Amino acid sequence: MSGDLPAPAPPVNPETERFWDATADGTLLLERCEACGTTFHYPRARCPECGAPDTQWFEASGRGTVYSYTVTRQTGGDYADATPFVLAYVELEEGPRMMTNLVDCDPDDLAVGRSVSVVFHDTGEGNALPRFTPD
Q1: Distances (CA, A) of 39 to 9, 13, 25, 61
Q2: For the whole model, what pTM was predicted?
Q3: CA distances from 70 to 39, 84, 114 (A)
Q4: 30-70 pLDDT per residue, tens
Q5: What is the chain's Cα-based Rg?
Q6: Are 52 and 36 a contacting pair, CB within 8 Å?
Q7: Which domains does the chain have, with CATH numbers?
Q8: Integer CA distances (angstroms), 35 to 30, 47, 95, 123, 131, in order
């Protein structure tokens, strides 16, 4: 990759605050529904499967596999100097898929199914962006 990716601060609201606070400590949190057992990401107040409000946070392993990805070779704005960069869906060991960036890798050497692990890029705003690097 030719440049470092920007790490813009994410929008934080009451439903996502605990998730983003944990990233500052290098912790990836997920939620699990107490009613139906569904594990999910992105944070929300109710289970996306059954609608129950009873969810519990837990620490994820930080490991997964590349489910899908695309290489961006041309763009503008804050990311113009970071090309090429990889936008991907990572399927976490716990089940949910997470949209993220793959970093510290050659985009031409990637493949669906490749093992990856989470890394955190500080936003400078009290949280960090979870991104993934190949194992």
Answers
A1: 25, 20, 22, 13
A2: 0.93
A3: 25, 10, 14
A4: 999 999 999 999 999 999 999 999 999 999 999 999 999 99
A5: 15
A6: yes
A7: 17-134 (2.40.50.840)
A8: 16, 9, 17, 35, 30
